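Retro notes, item 3 of 5
We never archived the inputs for the iron/sulfur cluster complex last cycle. Fixing that now. Sequence and ligand:
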Amino acid sequence: MKLTIDKELCTGCELCVSSCPDIFEMEGDVAMVKVEVVPDAAQDCVRQAVEDCPVTAIKIEE
Ligand code: SF4
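Structure as it came back at the time:
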């Protein structure tokens, strides 16, 4: 699983970063993905973060 974050949409609420700190980190005012490929063990966390993002800025590229 690979991820992208739409920087135009991200409001920097940090929800994804606090939910999955191994996967997301803040870069200035927006979140970024810090792994090239999401490890299997983190996929449930990431799917929840995608659902929870208030502006649906996180996209999964399977
Ligand atoms: S949850 Fe969504 S809006 Fe909030 S920091 Fe993460 S990508 Fe940005």
